[in-house]
Structures are given as structure tokens and as C-alpha cells.
Amino acid sequence: MTPVAVVGMDCVFPGAPDADAFWELLMRGGDAIGALPAARRDGAGFDDAVHGGFLDDIAVFDNDFFSIAPREAAAMDPQQRLLLQCAWRALEDSGRAAATLAGSDTGVFVGVMGSEWAQLHMGDYARVTPQLGAGSSTGMIANRISYHLNLKGPSLAVDTACSSSLVAVHLAVNSLLSGECGTALAAGVNLVLTPALGLVYRQMGLAAPDGRCKPFSADADGIGRSDGAGVVVLRRLEDAIADGQRVYAVIRGTAVNQDGRSNGVTAPSRWSQREVVAAACRRAGIAPEEVRFVEAHGTGTVLGDIIECAALGEVHGVPREQPVGLGSVKGNIGHTEGASGIAGLIKTALALHHRIVPASRFAARENPQLRLAERGLRLLGAPVRLPAGEVVGGVSSFGMGGTNAHAVLATAPRTARTPVRPLAGAPARTQAPVGVFTVSGDTPEALRRNLAAQADVLARRPRGDAAAVCWSSNRVKAGLPYRAAFTARDTASLSAALRTAAEDERLRAGIAERVRHAPVVAFLYTGQGAQEPGMSAALYRESPLYRRHLDAVDEALRPYTGGSVRELILAEDPAVHSTRWAQPALFAVAHALTATLADLGVVPDAVLGHSIGEYPAAVAAGLLDLDAAARLVASRAAHMDRLPEGGGMLAVRAGQDAVAGLLAVEPELALAAVNGPADTVLSGPRDALARASGVLRVRGIDSRELRVGHAFHSPLIAPALPGFRADAEEILGQAPPSAPARIPFASTSRGRVLGEEAPDAAYWAEQAAAPVRFADALGALVAETGATCLVEIGPLPQLVQLAGRAGLPSGTRLLHPAPGRGAGAAELAQTLADLYRAGAEPSWDELYEPGHRRAERLAPYAFSTEHRFWQQPAARPAAAGAGGAEPAGRGETAAPAAGGGGAVPATAAVDAERDPVLAAVVEAVVQVGEYPRERVDAGARFYEDLGFDSVMIMQLKDRIETRLPQAAGITVQQLLPALRSVGTLAEFVQEWITVGAAI
Q1: Residue scoring higher pLDDT (996 or 228)
Q2: Which residue, among 639, 715, 644, 705, has the nearest Cα to 684 in the 3D structure?
Q3: Can you say whether residue 134 is alpha, beta or left, with left for phi > 0 and alpha for psi between -120 and 50 degrees?
Q4: Which of these, 91, 118, 116, 103, lies nearest to 7 by C-alpha position?
Q5: Is residue 223 a contact partner of residue 205, using CB atoms and an 8 Å limit?
Q6: Which of 121, 148, 170, 335 is catalytic?
Q7: Taking residues 662-686, what's their average pLDDT?
Q8: pLDDT, tens digit, for every residue of 69-87?
Q9: Whether pLDDT at 904 is above 50
């Protein structure tokens, strides 16, 4: 059989809320058996003496996370609720976010032994609802996962009694091997909600009086029932390795068979058990003597243990170096029935992963009737370390009706880890690499909760580089609407930053920005004057990505500049201030930054360039190719560099009107740029600029001289224009035909967004001398594109400062990936972090070297425990022989503890007076979903926020017509387009009523 990898898991068992706690329980030989929680006794017929393995609070469920209405959540079998959360966390553990599998052929296979929830509630016909019908169906347990995660592969529930979940694993494996799905979730779940099955066990003589399973012990006296749920994520081994996923263990073979006509439909068959174990070994290509240990079915019934050991002995009782280790997780957590197979599989996978097999509880008093030694078996009285190399273990699970399953697992193959070492020719690293750690949640409180959870887990790790954990977080913790991101080099400082963020008072108060859509990103390309020796050199040293792109643009420029811009930058040569080198160097840095960000998944929705910055902007917009732009920039720089010296430029913190009088008395000066309401630039002879600066100083107006060698954008540039225009005509004549920009290109020469026109030679010549109308161009860009993030592309933060004074819409983000000479990989990473928080989805892989792209375990998603859903069943008498409990009172549906109950905010009362239709729609929505009143307002979206489905829509229609009889006659088909939000529905209903009244 082609191997199948176990790449992710999550579970909740008695005494173990997650996989780590489960392993810890097993390794210390813990006992998770206790009394039945009091909340389950009411109305269900339990007596006070029931013991077993029970989860603490099965009523807790984070319904908001899955957009499930409170009314529906309250009607759902807790088994469905439990597995939804486990499935999400298991996918996270596999190193993949659930969102990345949406729409895929991922399959869901769930083993479940019926629904005791249905037994409790579906018989009370007066309380049956559509929600209760779907919520009580065992088939829906798998379907819920597929629906809420949008998984489109096979989705089915399996009931073969106690072997259900291992049979589900078998079906999932075969589905993977047939190519039916590429990823499979195999799961099992069980909750003890009624005493019925316990009574069956008691009447059959199978129930342990103390509620404890004692597998293979001389004290074995029956079964103790238990709760539990587990999910494993499975992939074909070759696919898992190709995607760099962590592999806990490998499933080498599985088999399922049936007892057929044996001693009785509920009697185990030694021969069938033997055959299913042998068949799994054959399918795995494993000889029995290669199996080191078996996680047995091991219920702790005397007859069952004897038959199982006899069957195992017939397969594994062959000459071998040491006996097969034998154990059963039921000794720790009890018999989880439909989930017992997945419990055994998870235990086995963890044992192979950690290379140690936990001891078996109750091994001290081995049952001599089992004749373990002569059958090549031994109970593990202490943990056993596994040797190096491949190790094989088996898992058995047998159903009460005779359906048997066995799986053969092996340790994961050793895979070569990509070494982390500098690329050839790359500068030596002087500090740890930087990464971006991402955390997200569905509410501000969820974000805070998960920040704290990640901080706790990272604090327990040894201090080390953070790159790998950052990469892992980008893959699995990034997709929810409330976001946080942190640049980090080591795990200790990262943990501290997470802790500080979790304790932020604003976040504690529920104040956080929600991402509703991707940001509109505009790149602003810096002009001349921003250059400095060594600009971006630190980024070149630290970022292989930027290094590659600067090398490439340097190669494109070199034939036309007569030298290397890259070497000039790295040498920190002051010659970068000369016009000949400043313009090509700025172009190179800008183009390399653009290409670097593009590889990181950040591409502009619009561009704007300031003077020389229009050239890299034109390349980004598709108006120029790299070679044509490089030639134009080199020609422009060369022609201007030949101009006489003596010209300069002066930045003035005053508006155009304020400098108009100055220009009148200094006719040699020109208005070179209008950068904002109070930001202009003058250009001309240096002596005239000096006089102007003195006048401005007297007036109390700040000004500063720019680091340029000539008076750009003034008449003094005119002698360079004819030669440059001729070069431009030749260059553009040889380049591919120009086409309109593929994204909006805001021209600072024209002060507007260019339409269909493409810049020609005349444009580029005019652009060199005409005033820079940055303020007009920026205003047009923001107005026409709705840009929400402005990213400066250049070596100094100049344009973002101007933009910050331009009166932009509130909330506009101003970012800069290379803000200064010393800026390196950390500043680039910070820009990615800021864009991610704004709603962007970066291509994170390119931020990390291949050796750091490895899966690291993070804290699982911390779901909310605020909401509890528990419908008390109708009272029924204690069953005969169950202790004679007094009948309980009739139960009621518990209201979810969500957001402070049903108090109506003051604003809602005002809305009711001002807009009675909206108020009626809101109340109908509240009634249908049983939401807390404050959760529903005009902006609430029916599908994304409120979790409406077709049944709820029908009920909503009826409720609206009851509250607003004048709205009668609306069909569901007419209603559907209006169901974008509560407000849009109210507007539709109001229009319907108004039109009807007019008729």
C-alpha cells in the first residue's frame, strides 16, 4: 500500500483538552475516570453513582466563530460542536489554514456510535424544529465540518459501533489512495448523554462497577463508558513531504472485516480478529515480527481480552528478539466507544513520533489466563524507548456487531532538512533572520485570547531564532478578520511582544480594527534629493530577495551608465549625489524594491512618481519595460549632468500663494514643485535661492536646500532637453509599442491620472522641466482609486511625510519599506506586517530562506468559552436498575451567555421610533436566530455574521409578515437579493410596503 501520513491532529479526552495534554496523561499513567458531571444528570435518568471518563463542560461552544446562530447552536448535538472545533485545530496542526482548503476535494470521515442527543430530544415532538432535526442527525456530524469549512470531497459518518472511527480511518486512507481526495480528515466522537447503553452493558455483564476499564489485568471486570473526540489529518506521504508538512507517523496498511455468523451478533470472533490483523500487515508489506507494539482494543472485559490476546498471539507469536508490547488507552480514559479507534490511533502516532511507548495502566496484575508470554506478547509496565530506524506499531478496534479494524503504522521517514546557510557570494549574516509572526481572531477578544495563548507557548520554548515559528504562523494563523503581526528575530522577544499586545487596554476593551476587504495599495516613488551613500545597503546584505533584484536592475543599467550602480551604493560612495549617478541609483533602488514587494505578494493598485520617480512607476504600471526605462534614466542623467553647475532647489514649508510674491521679486527662480497645501519647492541659481531663504526666514517660514546638483524643473534645465528628447524618441522607437497603463498612473507632470494616453518622448522631455504637481496627482489618485495604503518606494521617507500633511481620508496608512540608510530586512518585514494588518495577504514564503520554511508547532486556536448551549431534555424516570433517581423537572433551552444578555442599547430604541420597519426586521432576526439583541443592527450580514441558512430565511419571512402584515406576499426569491445585511433587507421591505400602499 502507498503510505499515508498523519500530518495533523487534535483531540479532547477526559483529563486532556488537547493532544499535548493527552500525551502527558499517557506518559504519567494518568487516570481520567470520575463522576458524571451534575449538569448531565437532570432529566436524563442517570443515578448518582455513574462513573466514567467525562469531559468537563460539553455545553461550551464558540458558535460565533463558525457563524452559527444561537438557536441553531443550542439545537446541535454537542458531538457536532465538539468536532467542528477539533477539525479546525487539527488542520492548523497540519500546518495548513482551513481557508486554504476551501473548495478543495478534502474528505471528512467520522466514526460515531449514534446520537444520544437525538434520543433525549427528538422524542419530544412538541419541541421538534428544523434546527433540532439537523442538529440531531449523526450523518450531519461529518457534513457540518464539510459545510462550515467548505470542503467538497467525500463527507460521511460511519457507525460500526466501537470500531467506527478506525473504520473511518480505513475509508479515509482508501479515498486518498484512489485519488478521490487529496487531504482527508478522519475522526471519531462520543458523548455519554443517557444511561441507556450503560444499562445494556450492565445487563450483558460487561459494565465495570467502578467505571474503569482494566485491560488485560487480573482485576478486569468490564467497561467504563467515556467521552472523547479526535481528528487526524491524512495525506499521501509523498504529498506531505513535498509540501514540507510535519509527519507524526505513517499509516502503512489498514484492513476491515466482519465476524460473519459467529457465536452471536455481539460475540467477538478470535478468527476474524486474527485475519484482520494479518490482512493489515500484508497490505502494509510488514512481517509480523517487525511489529514492536500493538495498541489493542483492550476493553477490560475478561472474555474480550482473552479472545483478543489469542488472536494477536496467532499473528505475532513468531520467533522474535522480544515480545510485542501490548497496551490499551482505555485504561487511562475509559471506553470512548465510537471514538475509541481514533484515540488508539492518536496514541500510537504520538508514540511513534516521540519514539517512546507509554506504559499500560493495570499492567502490574497481568491476567494469567491471557498467556501473554507464550503468545509473544507482554504488557508494558513502564514506558519503552523505541530504537533508531523505522519502528512499526499496530492499532486494533473491534465493533460490538463484529466489524473489526486494524491499522499498521510506522515512524515517519527521515527527510533531509534544508540547511540554513548563506548563498554563495552573499554577505555574512551578523544577526538572526527576521520574520513576521501573525495572529488573528474572529473578534477583538479572540485576538487578545490567542495572543496570550501564543505568548504562553513561545515562552516555554528555549530561546532561539524566530524565523521558523513566524513562517508557521503565516501559514495557519493569518486568515481571520482581527489581526496582529510582529516582526521578530528571536522567540523570547517575540513572546514578550505578544504578551504586551494581549494586555493592551484598548484590545481588552474590544477596540480593534476589523478587516473587511483587501486594501487598495498605491506606490509613491521618491524623486531626486532622497539619495544618500549606502542607501539600501543594509537591505542588500540582509535580504536575498532584494539582493537578487538590485543585481538584476544593475545589470540592466550598466551598459548605459558606464559603471555599476550597485557597487556605488555598497561602497557608500558620495558620488551618488552627482546627477549622473543619483538618478540611475534612485531608479535602481525603486525598481528593486518594487520587484521585491511583488515577490512578497504586494503589487500596487496604482502608482505615482515624483520627478525621476515616474520612471520606476511607469515600469510598475506597464508603460515602460525595464530596458527602455534604464536607457531613458541613463540618458536623462547624462544630459543633465553636463549642465553647468550653480543651480539648486529649495524646499519651502509654505503654499503656492505664499511664495508667489517671492517669485515675482526673484525672476530667476521657478516654482519646481507643489507638494501640498503648505509644501512647495523653488528651483534656480543658488545665489537667488540663498536670498529667498533669507526672506523666508524673516517671515518665519522654514526652508531647506535639497541635495541636488542642478536646478531641476526650471528653465535652467532647458539646454539638456533637445538631446534627451532625441534619445527618448530613439529609445521608445526601438521599444515595444506603448500601451495604456495596466493600473492607474498618476502623472505628477500633468497633476492627474493618465487615461488612455501613454507617455511618449515629448512627455518625458516635458516632464524633466515642468513643475511637479505632486499634490494634484496625489489627490486625483486617492479620489479615483480610493487608495487606503500609500507605500513610499525610495530610500528616504519624503513622500509619506508630504502625504501625511495632505489631508487624506482618516485611516489611510502611510508605509515605507526602506526608511533610511540603515533600514534592512526588519523594516521590509514591518511593511509586510502593516499591510497584513490592513487586510493584505502577502506571499510570506519569499520572506524566509528555504531552511526556515519548516513547520513548527504553535498553540492551537483558543476558542471562546463564553457561550454555553444546553437544552435540558424532557424529564424521564430513572431506568430500572439505574438507581431509582427521582424524576427531574422539564428542561428548558438555555440562553447563550453572549455579550451580556438581551439588553437593548439606547440607540436601538431611537431606531425603533425613527424606523419602525428596521426595528421590526431586527426583532424578527433576533427571534429566528435567538441572538442577543445587541448583536443585531443594520450592518449585520446575514450569511457572514449571523450564519443564516435557507431554513432560517423561510422562518424570517414568516416572522416579518407577522410583525408587518402589509409586507405579506413577498416571495423568498424576491427576498434573497436583499439579504446582504439587515439594513438592506429593511430597505427592501420598506420599499415593498410603500409601493403596495401607493397601489
Answers
A1: 228
A2: 715
A3: alpha
A4: 91
A5: no
A6: 335
A7: 93
A8: 999 999 999 999 999 999 9
A9: no
Structure confidence at residue 720 (pLDDT): 95
- Is residue 633 within 8 A of residue 583, CB to CB? The reply is yes
d(CA 485, CA 836): 8
- Determine whether 335 is an active site residue: yes
Cα separation, 36 vs 395, whole angstroms: 29
> Comparing C-alpha atoms, which of 377, 178, 387, 392 is closest to residue 285?
392
* Amino acid, single-letter form, for residue 774: F
Q: Which three cell numbers stand for residue 23?
A: 500525551
Of the residues 121, 148, 170, 297, only one is catalytic, namely: 297
CA nearest 648: which of 691, 586, 679? Answer: 691
**577-588 per-position pLDDT tens digit:** 999 999 999 999
Helix (H, G, I), strand (E, B) or coil at 420: coil
Pairing of strands 291-295, 392-398: parallel
* CA nearest neighbour of 407 among 185, 169, 236: 169
pLDDT over threshold 80, residue 597:
yes
d(CA 614, CA 637) in angstroms, rounded, equals 14
Whether 690 and 703 have beta carbons less than 8 Å apart is answered as no
Catalytic residue status for 162: yes
What's the length of the chain?
999
Amino acid 596 reads: T
* pLDDT (0 to 100) of residue 669: 94
Predicted model pTM: 0.89
Q: Are 626 and 556 in contact (CB under 8 A)?
A: yes
Rounded Cα distance between 82 and 79, Å, is 5
Chain-centre distance for alpha carbon 321: 47
Q: Contact, 380 vs 360, CB < 8 A?
A: yes
Task: Report the chain's mean pLDDT, rounded to a whole number.
Answer: 91
> Does 297 participate in catalysis according to the annotation?
yes
Say whether pLDDT at 897 is over 80. Answer: no
The residue ranges of DSSP E strands in 161-211, in sequence order, are 183-190
Cβ neighbours around 877 below 10 Å, total? 12
pLDDT at 146 over 80: yes
Split at pLDDT 50, 70, 90, the class of 277 is very high
Q: How far is it, in rounded angstroms, from Cα 27 to Cα 613? A: 64
For residue 893, name the pLDDT band (cuts at 50, 70, 90). very low
Contact 891, 873 (CB under 8 A): yes
| Residue (of 935, 934, 930) closest to 909 by Cα position | 934
Selected catalytic residue, list 162, 181, 213, 281: 162
